[in-house]
Design a protein that fits this description.
This protein is of the alpha+beta class and 120 residues long.
């Protein structure tokens, strides 16, 4: 009797650890033993508890308000510049692999004089 009860509890814990629910604006990138297996959409997701790892990616547009900065133009005029940066994720797989690289590049952007674009 006790073995059946313990077995039922273990099966329930296994099922509870393997089921995830995603909202409409989220995507899940599934890693199995460190490799990307699939990208899943919103709804019910079933994972293998010890083997699979899920990374949630928010697909909504995110705004980042850049504080006002004093800038000197090429002709030595002081101006104040305000900016808003919009982020939108298009490929959740690429974001989950490249996020550390993107965040370090964002912190180490070179400063450019006003009026010079540095789009690469």
């Amino acid at each position: 009797m006790y073995t059946i009860t313990i077995l039922v509890i273990l099966v329930f814990m296994f099922l509870a650890a393997s089921i995830r629910i995603l909202n409409e604006y989220e995507r899940a990138v599934i890693f199995r033993l460190g490799r990307i297996i699939d990208q899943k959409g919103p709804g019910l997701i079933i994972l293998i508890p010890v083997v699979d790892k899920m990374v949630k990616v928010d697909m909504r547009t995110i705004t980042l308000d850049v504080p006002p900065q004093d800038v000197i133009t090429r002709d030595n005029v002081s101006i104040k510049v305000n900016a808003v940066v919009y982020f939108r994720v298009i490929d959740a797989n690429a974001l989950s692999l490249m996020w550390k690289t993107i965040s370090t590049r964002r912190r180490s952007l070179p400063r450019q004089p006003c009026g010079v674009s540095a789009v690469r």
